Amino acid sequence: MVATNPDTPIAPPGQIVTMHVNERPVTIEPRRVTGLAIKQAAIAQGVPIEEDFILVLEREHGRTEIIGNSDIVTLTSHSRFLANDGDDDS
Fold it and tell me: How far apart are the C-alpha atoms of 26 and 13, rounded to whole Å?
């Protein structure tokens, strides 16, 4: 699902997806975007995160995957992310 090749083609415009970042809906276009673009879209739509936060993709069965700023992700309406500053508050 995640590609790190910067030459990977991006989907054409017009494919709008609503995903979730920190449980808040975020609409984004196109469907294939970088981790940084996900964070930027979330910030622009009022999610209280910053560009330097760690982005984590929530997968099925409780699995997770860290998404780097240059990693390319194919989004669906089921895509859910957590973004945090990386500080361990425990």
Answer: 17
Q: Determine, yes or no, domain membership for 20.
A: yes
Backbone torsion region of residue 31, taken as left when φ is above 0, otherwise alpha when ψ lies between -120 and 50, otherwise beta = alpha
CB of 35 closer than 8 Å to CB of 57: no
pTM above 0.85, yes or no: no
Report the percent of the chain where pLDDT is more than 70: 81
Is the confidence at residue 10, as pLDDT, over 50? Answer: no
Domain membership of residue 60 as a residue range: 16-84
Radius of gyration from C-alpha coordinates of the chain: 12
